[in-house]
Amino acid sequence: MNRLTRRRFLQGCLGAAAVAALPGAAFAENSEALPPLRQMALRAGIEYGAAVGSPHLKQDPAFAAAVARECGVIVGEYETKWSFIRARRDEWNFSGTDALWDFAGRHDQSLRGHTLIWHNALPNWVKDDLNAATAQQLMEAHINTVVTRYLDAIATWDVVNEAIYPSDHLENGYRQSPWLVMGADYIEKAFRLAHAANDNATLIYNDYGVEFDARKADKILSLLRRLKDSDTPIHGVGLQCHSGNGEKLDLRGLNRFCRGVADMGLELQITELDIKDTRLPDDETERDMLVAERTRAVLETIFAVQKPTQLLTWGLSDQYTWLLDKKMNPSGRPVRPLPLDRTMRRKPMWLAIHDVLRQAA
Ligand code: G3I
């Protein structure tokens, strides 16, 4: 982290810490008067938003109002994945993504597409059918059908998600994905198919871990370079930024990665920011401040190199986060990984994001 960033980080933290040290209600009261994140993002020339589940928008008016207020872009946490859209071979279910499209349209928001090709969220029939002879046709039918349906709705796609996983010990750090039956160029093929279906869309490679795993970050950079060298229609990289307390931040490595992306002329997007806080102190005020500081450290490091075009948190309220899932949180302890608490009140993490956007404006 260069000296300027460090000083800004400390000033920022002390500033945010001072405010963040207020107990929840007082903090929320102090921050309510501030403009929403979508407005601050717009002033900075970027979009802020969050992953949402369509059932929550329908069933929880307070949550829907908070999403409408704070988000300029939304993305389906689940609805635009293969396992929802084509759970069965002969059935396409667009109801979830259509509901998100409707909500986004009513609140002047853009809709992000997550995700076309992933090793996860694949129905069993796909895993059964997928082989060297069928893969291209399966991939082509899926990408053409989904991207074409949302030509007027979705301008940014996570085309391929999480294809790098060095622990699988494959060449170039590839993950042992079912799609590898097509060969290592399945990634390039997915981008070419997405571009053929919508040549106006912004096409993103999305992955996690660059802020704490330098080995993985280097493999992702190499993949991006290979895609660029083969003139693959790719426009940017999504840094998921699930930056929990389990991993030690490597801000120098993150800075190096962001510079590598900028050197290739690729966009940066922050696509799934949340801060897993299960190992942080029980005291909520202290925990919220630590989550805010970690948020600020990650964001300031990225913004210091290149302003992301989109900044999304993976959820908006602690009421709805994947980190409440039993397998992620066996103890069932309440988690506080997101900008709003369970009652939709703004938290120090919200202020940290607000502050970074204000500085970027
Ligand atoms: O809503 C259905 C329900 O109708 C159905 O009865 C039930 C039966 O399984 O499934 C429910 O859907 C669940 C869905 O979340 C909505 O809650 C799926 O089972 C469950 O697998 C799904 O998990 C999602 C996971 O990706 C897998 O798709 C999580 O919500 C989502 O937060 C998580 O998000 C991923 C990103 O896509 C990629 N980066 C990591 C991130 C966290 O794992």
Q: Can you characterise this structure?
A:
This protein is of the alpha/beta class. The chain contains 14 helices and eight strands. It has an eight-stranded parallel barrel, surrounded by five helices. Helix 1 (3-20) crosses helix 14 (348-360), helix 11 (214-229) runs parallel beside helix 12 and helix 13 runs parallel beside helix 14 (348-360). 49% of the residues are buried. Ligand G3I is lined by residues 53, 77-78, 81, 120-121, 161, 240, 272, 322.
Low-confidence stretches: 1-14
Structural class: alpha/beta
| Radius of gyration over all CA atoms, rounded | 20 Å
Strand and helix order: HHHEHHEHHEHHEHEHEHEHEH
Total number of helical segments?
Answer: 14
Shape: globular
The CA-CA distance between the termini, in Å, is: 21 Å
Number of strands: 8
Summarize the main sheet. Answer: 8 strands, parallel, barrel
- Helical content stands at 40-55%
Molecules bound to protein:
ligand G3I
Mean pLDDT: 93
**Largest beta sheet: strand ordering:** 1-2-3-4-5-6-7-8
**Percentage of residues in DSSP E strands:** 5-15%
